[in-house]
Amino acid sequence: MSGPVVKLLMRRLLTVIPTLIMVSLLLFCVLRLLPVDAAAMSLPPNATNDEIAAMRIEMGLDLPLIQQYGIWFGDMIQGDFGTSIHFRTAVSTLVLDTLPATIELAVMAMGFATVFGVLGGLWLFYARGGAVEVGLDLGSVALLSIPEFLWALFFMLLFGVSLDLLPFIGRLGSGVARPETITGFLLIDSLLSGNMATFMDALRHMILPSVALGLSAAPPIMRILRSSLMDVYQEDYIHQARQRGISEGRILIRHALKNAFLPTLSLMGVQFGFLFGGTLLVEIIFSYPGMGNLMVDAIRNADLPIIQTVGLTYCVMVLLISIVVDVLYLVLNPKLREA
User: Fold this and answer.
1) Which of 261, 276, 325, 272 is nearest to 119 (CA)?
2) What is the pTM of this model?
3) Interval 284-310: pLDDT, tens
4) Is the pLDDT of residue 277 over 60?
5) Which CATH number fits domain 100-302: 3.40.50.261, 3.10.580.10, 1.20.1250.20, 1.10.3720.10?
């Protein structure tokens, strides 16, 4: 790993720590301001006031807010995120069980968004100046205006209910055996176990939710790539390549795309962060057992430990995505490494 990349990683990691502290403090304080009594929620409905008061003392809810945060933060550093009020299970176990499903869905959706966005951006640029460009531009605006949950409902009704082509409930079919847990990622575990039937079934269950998410992230990629290509085509080396008789297709793919892709990569990182957070509604619609479903159950039951941990997990994932994109940008751009 080169020196500039290491320096970038060190700088970003130094900013991650205070960011996580601020986010955790904000989450903790905001949730404590809600009119929810965690002690009462953790006891049966017929619990007496004395039992609730005793539980409040046991949970430390009678302490000052900053002291409560200090205790929670200290436990969190040691890997103890508390116990779920509703599920009566360690929160870390619940999050680790559902996080791989959400990561798989987000990665597959981002892969679709990248392919669709790059090909669409190339088509938009190649068709510039004609009637086709106007139609494609209007189409990208239309795609941009439709949120992921509407795509999810549309795909469910069309491909799941009406045409009965793809499954749209859960992560696996009822008669499909789940492979032995190795990594926690269902697709990877299926391949490692040599269980192709489970792999294909899991993949089919992910198509509709991932495409619904990907379609909402693809239009900005298309438009920024088209704009970047237009800027790159004003550079001298493009004119020189054309004068040397190089075909337009080769100029586009071999020369212009490499430089135009860098601004697009930055946008893709931002889109991936939004897409990861947008899995919540899509998971609910498709009954997909990821962190989104866990979060909604926690909100429904006022399960503060889960809400805090899932919110912090989303923050960590977005920060990690940002770091990876910055590193890729530095690796792909020699000028930044020299600077």
Assistant:
1) 261
2) 0.86
3) 999 999 998 898 888 888 888 898 899
4) yes
5) 1.10.3720.10
